[in-house]
Amino acid sequence: MDDIPAEDRTKELVLLMTQNQRRIFAYIYTLVPDRHAAEDILQETSLIICEKFHTFRPGSDFVAWANQIAWWQARAARTKFARSKVVFDDTVLEAVAHTHSELAPEQDARHEALANCIKKLPTRDRELVMTRYEPGSSVDEAAQRSGRSLVAAYKALTRLRKVLHDCVLNQMSKSTS
What is the pLDDT of residue 31? Predict the structure, then answer.
């Protein structure tokens, strides 16, 4: 690792974080009670990843390494949630973390299948779906951008969700056979 230039390691870190931030967040979100707490823990985890990146072995599983850091951050954050009505013990958190790691490959395959299915949609429908699910967007905004009435947008989104659901199931069944 010492023979790799610092600039190349920085580029590697940025690339790995960019590619995997959603997966790391999804893992954290399985461990904490709400989205805001998960976002805070993601920020803390990202800082530690940057600080400790020199210990990461190139070629090993970055997400597993980052999730281990996230695990400890989530565990430390539990003290903040101690006043909450529902606090899970370490056994429950370990079970959730284990289940998440087992399901990660299937989730990745589903995300890939969904991306392929979205690409197959006609442009107008694809833009409606993509606009609707942009962070902070709404059906009203998606309807306005697509030139549809609100009722038409709701009907189109309902139909498109069914089309995408069926397409993903079809692709998943083909990949397992």
Answer: 84
Rounded CA-CA distance 65/12 in Å is 14
Virtual torsion, Cα 108, 112, 113, 114, nearest 10 deg: 100
How many CA atoms, within 13 angstroms, populate the side-chain half-sphere of residue 176? 11
pLDDT at 1: 47
Chunked mean pLDDT (size 10), the chain, 177 residues: 69 90 89 84 93 90 92 81 60 75 74 89 91 84 91 93 92 78
Whether 121 contacts 160, CB under 8 Å = yes
Domains, in order of start, for the chain: 1-87 (1.10.1740.10), 105-177 (1.10.10.10)
41 Cβ contact partners less than 8 Å away, ≥ 6 residues apart: 28, 31, 32, 70, 73, 74, 77
**Residue 95, CA distances (Å) to 6, 38, 72, 100, 115 in order:** 38, 18, 15, 9, 29
Residue matched to tokens 């949609």:
121
